[in-house]
Here is the input.
Amino acid sequence: MSAARPLTALRTIAVIAALPLLLTACGYGADSADDDKQTEVAANAKKIDGLDEVKIGYFPNLTHATALVGVQEGLLQKELGGTKIKPSTFNAGPSEIEALNAGSIDIGWIGPSPAINGYTKSNGKSLRIISGSASGGVKLVVNPDKIKSLDDVKGKKIATPQLGNTQDVAFLNWIAEKGWKVDPQSGGGDVSVVRTDNKITPDAYKSGSIDGAWVPEPTASKLVAEGGKVLLDEADLWPDKKFVITNIIVSQKFLKEHPDVVEAVLRGSVKTNAWINANPEKAKAAANEALKEESGKALPAEVIDPAWKSIAFLDDPLAATLNTEAEHAVKAGLLEKPDLKGIYDLAPLNKVLKAEGQDEVDDAGLGAE
Here is the structure.
């Protein structure tokens, strides 16, 4: 049994129409990172393609630690020379896709559901997935006084981050596989699916307004610190315990016009993941420092330590799991059957991996011609 995530197409339009009410921030739901967070460009460094800057987007989540650490440690900027990184952070996938479509960002770290949504809604013209970034880091955490087994989830109030987001579709798919019925739009049914921003989910749990949550890290570990119990790790639902949680996407226009810049960002991402895996404690500290700069508060050890251990940082986009996730979204009623042919362009990544002496990765037959 596996879990799910994507959404889009005709029936998704109604979903997307409701999303702006859930989003926060300036611009397209993005908070431009402070100037002092941007890594300084080395003196006399040469610009790639003559480009002054490359605009990248990501979430202040541990599942986006490749971007957090890559920016924090200067590993991405190092590969870009005189082309300066301009980072922006987002609270929701749809807002990041909107920013990509508007040209407010060029490249982004994002979950599979909004990537599929953005690709299919644009009839395959808006973006390409050019790399993986992370796997895992999603858990069902519950109140142990109210829920002692998986069957006890029936009749309870369980939070997901957002209607139609990656974890929401995963939970809806899991519910369907249990044989329970839930209306995907309202969240009502045998389980009450309560769409709740990750920022307020811990408070909702403490107040008793929810009985648990299917959420990414570090929200899952925050709930555990409040007395919650991990009832299910989503990785256990997947073959080899691997499923894509974070991709790297690029606008097709930017990829066509600035391939060398895209390659440099990918080289920085590959080297960042290698550094993270070789220096897990230093990388965890760097990610926590980046989160502190975003929120004003670092994560305590009881939250970041278990959260960090549950995430695998890797360059492989795990393309086969993306296709499975799309199938789950269709089954959940949030997606018309999509044509994902062309969603990947892994040629730049494979070029970088080959140069680094690493194995090339596969697009599961979903690559661009």
Summary: Confidence is low (pLDDT under 50) at residues 1-38. The two ends are 32 Å apart (CA to CA). The first helix runs from residue 12 to 18.
